[in-house]
Amino acid sequence: METFIQQVLAGIATGGIYACMALAVVMIYQAIHHLNFAQGEMAMFSTFIAWQLLQWGIPYWLAFGLTIVISLIGGYVLERSVFKPIHNAPVLSHIVIFIALFAIFNSLAGFIWDFTIKPFPSPFGNAPLFGGGLIGGHQAGMIIITLVVLLILFAFFRYTRVGLAMRAAAANPESAKLVGIRVGVMTGLGWGMASAVGAVAGILIAPVVFLEPNMMLSILLYGFAGAVLGGLSSPGGAVLGGFTVGVVENLAGTYIPVVGAELKLPIALFLIVAVLVFKPTGLFGQRVVQRV
Amino acid sequence: MTVQQEEVSAVEARQEQQARSVSAATISSLVVLAALVLCPFFISGFQTFQLNLMLIYAIAIMGLNLLTGFNGQFSLGHGAFYAIGAYTAAILIDTFGVSYVWTLPAAGVICFVSGFLFGLPALRLEGVYLALATFALAVATPQMLKLSILEHWTGGVQGIVIRKPKAPFDLPLSQDQWLYFFTLFVGLLLYWAARNMVKSRSGRAIMAIRDNPLAARSMGVNVALYKSLTFGVSALFTGIAGALGAIVIQFVAPDSFTFVLSVALLVGLVVGGVGWLPGAIVGGAFIVFVPNIAEEISKGLSGAMYGLMLILLIYVMPTGAGGLIRTVTDRLTRR
Amino acid sequence: MSATLKVRNLEASYGAFKVLHGLDFDIAEGSVTTLLGANGAGKTTTLRALCGMIRRSGTIEYEGRSIANMKTEDIVRLGVAHVPEGRGTFTSLTVEENLRLGAMTRSAGDGISGDIDRIFAFFPRLKERASQQAGTLSGGEQQMLAIGRALMLRPKLMLLDEPSFGLAPLIVKEVFAILADIRENMGVSMLLVEQNASLALELADQAYLIETGSIALSGPAAEIRDDESVRASYLGY
């Protein structure tokens, strides 16, 4: 029983990472109805920008804020410049562009900052807090910031006009144009916000996994899994989904004999796929009711 | 002219147009085929090897195209079937001493079964969910291959080395040339099979499912069976490509089959043209040659160059080479 | 009366297929104009062309300025509200959010909440369902919501695409009574596309009859309504 609780706690700690990323995934999914495969690399790139700012001696929280702003603008510009010309192309062409962006960001980061592993500071320190040292200061801080971001997003979409316009543009682009919403701008804004949330995720994750161009590879996948588990439509569901993935991964590694430890990742993924087979809207996905 | 006459002549014109574009298509396929046959006699052994890889990837893409292009099911995990085919061939040759020729049907059968079985749960998944499930398969593949309990067969991280076969019957061909023609033969056979399948009754059912699953069901098509079967056939093609790849490269190891391979196949499919079988050659060429070109432009930024070229390509032809050719011929024949 | 909308030689096509072959019509300020015609005559296409939702050519003058090259969003900003075919409900959003979206182009303070109250007074049934997902509304309620959303723009011109479509006769009556009310009390000009010709002619001042993308007949609604032969050959009632 004690191991069980230990493993659940450890799962929650890593789950915090996935929850962050899942949140970013849901942000973009809401705006464009695709999973953006380049999102992890974009977050990694943002994290490198933060690292560079820190290297230049800018204080942590200022660098944090600056990185978010830069990522927001960067995401917006990226959408408006790369995706606008092909917004009528088929889905698969979009996926290929994501793959291209993946290659570009990865290669650029390696070129500018090289491929050596860099430590990244945490503002929360690493002192063990509770759970037998499994949840340290940074883990706790990460979880809190994730929840704060979630709260901000919730308020933004619920209570601001721009948030409402973004939801409308995503839900029904044609009708959105008919009420005067500039749908393209909203899509760009969605990209900007997703990339800003991704930047937060990257900065929080980097102290745990260390900074290098490939740091986001498997994390993005867990983020996808968390987001899908959460139903892809609700930011809250994504965060819960992220934690669930972390816990499932840890428990699979501990309790499944022989192959458990070696196949932690595939087992976690397959469990999630299995969940989807039986509940295709995800665990926390909301059903949109429609009468015709 | 009366309206009727006008209509008749319009139909005739259209038939003529079709006939013209059909003959143009035949001529261009013959030219491509001739080029493929003659090429190995004018290029180096290594270039022949690269060309061979292009054909192998083309076969794999053809398989993916049957699934995605004609049946509308996404797969970001076809590298897994490629790996299964490759390992089947390598294990049969290395452990059981089977001749390389017979590993192809074996790889095909095993991949068909795996694909069919994977296709069953995939029935319940659509769009992004299927993309995620197949992507998970791709990510899991190298880890499965490294599993210690399978090490006796797979050679673990080390992989399996196999020997390159010689040309039979004392043909005056180098090993590379012989394998190239072997692949070309298998590829043409599979292309012929794929074409016939697409044009057959089953092919129409498969495409009807893609276009409108509900309507297909109401016309009496067994959607579940056809979807799983298509998954199986698609895996069969890709698996045979994998077996050929193992024979030609003479080596299999888990890290040759990461998700990068699956992604490359998808890129090849889109670049060649979704739903257009001959596009596979273009896709195969892209997979083999474009990363090299990118590397030549800039060593440090080869990834970025690759990405840029990919984006430019999609701008020029958003629906791949197939779409581009369709637009061009449309314009030419309409005139 | 000056013309709110002046359309000359309007053409539009879907791909290579031409649907509108040069329409001419006017909408006088504060009046209701109706476009009648069979299924596939090009009525919906006309509305979509006016709003820039499809590629079109010709002259479209709205309050004296050309809108033929403007984007949908910009045309909406000038006060043209389109109640589209199928009602265009944002099904996943609440009723109130749908209404708020109608005022998206107005500045934030500008009496939006007051307007929402006014719409709710107009459509009490929407008020009851204010925080409900709009997708759960019945067809008639969604039609009212669409009209309400259009009114939130404080439009000068409303384009209505088959407001009676798929509704029970009683509800249709209700909707048309509301339209008449809007026209009386708010001075909004309307372009009404309808299959239900008798209802539309009841409401309209001016009528145009479209046949396969061209105007076959036009005149004051009252005249067309009273012309037996037109009714028999075009309107079928």
Describe the structure.
The complex is a heterotrimer of chains A (292), B (335) and C (237). Chain A is an all-alpha fold and 292 residues long. Chain A has helices spanning 2-32, 39-55, 60-83, 91-113, 137-159, 161-171, 173-178, 183-209, 217-229, 235-255, 264-278; strands at 128-130, 135-136. Chain A has a two-stranded antiparallel sheet with strand order 1-2. In chain A, α6 (161-171) packs across α8 (183-209). Chain B is an all-alpha fold. Chain B has a two-stranded antiparallel sheet. In chain B, α11 packs across α12 (279-297). The model of chain B has no long low-confidence stretch (mean pLDDT 82). Chain C is globular, with a radius of gyration of 17 Å. The longest helix of chain C is centred in the C-terminal third of the chain and has 18 residues, at 169-186. In chain C, α3 packs parallel to α6. In chain C, the strands form 2 sheets. In chain C, strands 6-7-8-3-9-10 form a 6-stranded mixed sheet, with helices on both faces. A 4-stranded antiparallel sheet of chain C has the order 2-1-4-5, covered by helices on one side. By secondary structure, chain C is α/β, with parallel strands linked by helices. The A-B interface holds A 29, 34-35, 82, 85-86, 88-90, 92-93, 95-97, 99-104, 106-108, 110-111, 218, 221, 224-225, 228, 232, 258-259, 262-263, 265-266, 269-270, 272-274, 276-278, 280 and B 68, 121, 124-126, 128-129, 131-133, 135-136, 139-140, 143-144, 146-149, 263, 266-267, 269-271, 274, 300-308, 310-311, 314-315, 318-320.
